[in-house]
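Assemble and predict.
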Amino acid sequence: MDHLSTALNHAQSMGAEYADIRIQKTTRETIFLMDLSLKNTSRNVEHGYGIRVMKNGAWGFAHSNIFSNDEVKKTVEKAVKVAELSAKIKKGKGLTLAHERGYIDSYSTKIQIDPFKVPLSEKVDLMLEVNKTLLNYSKIKRAFFMLDMLNDDKYFASTLGSVIHSNTYYINPMISATAVNDKDSQTRSFDEGGYGAGWEHVLKMNLVQKAVQIAEEAIIKLEADEPGEIRRRDLILDPNHLGLTMHESVGHPTELDRVLKWEADYAGVSFATPEKLKKYRYGSEIVNFVGDNTLSFGLATAGYDDDGVPGQKWYIIKDGILNEYGTTRDTAPFIGENMSRGCNRATYYYDFPINRIPNLYLEPGKKLLSPQELIADTEDGIYIEGRGSFSIDQHRVNFQFGGDMFWEIKNGKKVRPLKDVLYKSCNPEFWNSCDAICDARYWKDFGVTNCGKGQPPQTARMTHGAATARFKKIRVGGSK
Amino acid sequence: MTDKQFQKAAKFIENNCSADDFSLFMYRSDETATRYAQNMITQNMTGVKYGVRLNVAYGTQTGSARINSLDECELKKMVETAQNIAKLNKPDPEFVPSTSKAKIPKTDNLSENTVKFSMKEMVDVIKKTVDNAEKKKAFVSGIVTKRVTDSYLKNKNGFEGFDSSSEFENSMTMADNKTREAKVERSVKDVNDYSIKKEIDQLNSRFDALTEPKKIEAGQYNVILRPQAVINFFSFLLYFFDRKNADYGVSAFHNSIGKNMFGKNFSLISSLDEKDLTASAFSGDGLAARNIDWIKNGVVKELFTNRSYAHKIKAEPNFIPNVIIRGGNATEEEMMKKVKNGLIINNFWYIRTVSMRKNEVTGLTRDGIYYFENGKIKHSVNNLRFNEVLHDAAKNILLLGKEDNIAAGTKVPTMLIKDFTFADTTSF
């Protein structure tokens, strides 16, 4: 705790207008089983601190992994020097920060069984059983199982008076099976994208049963027909698939740093510009997207963000209209907002925090509706489960998405499996074509632990959620 | 960091490690990165990162641990963690012992000029970039990065390697408030080989050539792919290049070795003989680098083969020390005259696999796309989505330009390719 006050006092004595220090220890255990070979069983630790100062309206950031008061002071001095250099290239008076106050608080992910304390043999036995189950099918030639567990133990302190401790976890088992015949290879995966929980989450999953399902469906895909020429059909998308669809076409376009073109050189910008706020019809009237960094088990739920702003819940799209962005303390003032929505996050201690997608979900439909009833109500469509090939332009308008499992729907029934299905759509066509969302009984959350953004690149995590939904007359078919 | 400091830490680890086999990898990376956007600096960061990774084995039971410190207490804990994992782990049926002593090729990956390049000089580079954008009433965004990395590998069976490398990189995107958006990016080993004037001139040239884009529809077009587009597109080959996936029928490379799959104009190699290019001298699992023809004049010669699979099939293992796609001598003007019309593509974006078995990928154009006709650029066009098979595109190469060192370890040419498949148009 000494280091926290040393850093802040020294930064203030050097004329910093604002400073914070983030001491972060990230522990990650990864077990990677390829077929029946344990390719990697590792425990990795990144431990250090990052010091961020604002001076003369510009940011400076320096990091170190040496824990002594002298080194902390040297790191502050580097950060201040960097800020002074940054201030030579700024607009007007430079950056300002949205209002915030100090907090003394702590937050922990609610885990029942610490995944790092579960015996290795229990984890590896389960993984081997899963991959043996997959490889028991003669057409399954490759079996993949990655078990990824992470703990972030973080102290944050700022010159606003905040001292915040957070201790967050996630766990993510990812399994895939690849079936091969003379003409083709097809992969089917089980990947829920990570969950803010402990080992108890894995125990509830019945992964051996899931392995049977994905092996059989990989083989079904192998023998399935391709969808043929691209034509307009209805799409019914399951919650897992929708998780990545909303991530790409709603989450990223509503990050304020993209809107401000701060990511123009790499990750891209956004079509959802500020003059569209409160009036742009992003989706149909039943489309409501909520940013919620208080979501139970959410991957972006950490109590506070790396600006020291508390987790919040707000409408990003309300009744189909663009309502608000995900913001940070340094971006919010550019659109006249005096408070941040708390979306600033860094990956490791040595990363500078950047504007990130919050936990973001599509609210369930208000009328009682099941996926079976939705299929029964569809004459000509395709039902897509899971995540596949995803690609979207750098303005977040035009996209082509695939999936993991596909079923043709004719006259209210799933009539046959398909493979290699792609659909092409754009904003705002896609979310405006949403005419039905199943009710809250079918809402489910899915994680993303590898959201790449920033220069140098960082990966962030967040949770998305949805109930199965239908999109009318979308262009769907084969690849060309 | 010197090899002696690494060796001291290695000695400590070796003295504390009781495993039958071990492999130790350490690095130190001193990095400063300054980001700018909309003509102002938005992030500026500096610091040194360390990494120490230890793989151990008892028999065929393996374990691994990684920390970011050379502190001896932490190193001791790391050794215990890796050993405990290995002792509790199941045997790995594909385990291979660590490599033995090998002659590591000499590489010249470090430039003192880059080491000495200061943070102030980095900001000066950005100042020139921003001044240029303001003169053009435009906005520039990007990142200037300087990175100096030392790496060291030692294992139980005698392999020991040390390497130092440097990299300076500037990536800049200039846009106006309408539709014009152009980018240039380059990384070099020696900062003295980087000319900000030359890069700004190229950025201006690309930016000035942009007009209000005219709408074009999806279809097959002749394309001139500039180097950044070439590497972003063909680098996907490296994802599909795994020998085991090929042998098991998972990828398009099934039964491909020795066959002309890519056409005579396509050669992809790794070479330690290119003085202007960096190359990894050794891999993280203890292989010394060597020159490799992956694809020569269209014929698949060698696929990526890791040590355990190489052992199983009795092949020589390999890794990818750097990437060179062989070029020719054609200029862009000659390429434009070679075909009646076509598109010049500066860059691709968000490329993803459509089908590994078909070698098919999708992605979009970005950072400027121009329509040319009768040997001249006529106007900009809207961005397009491609769905294309990598080896089909390679077979359709008509002309190759000179190789361009677009990154410290990457050299590729501009290419003229006929009938490139764009599956969709976009709205901008």
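The radius of gyration of chain B is 24 Å.
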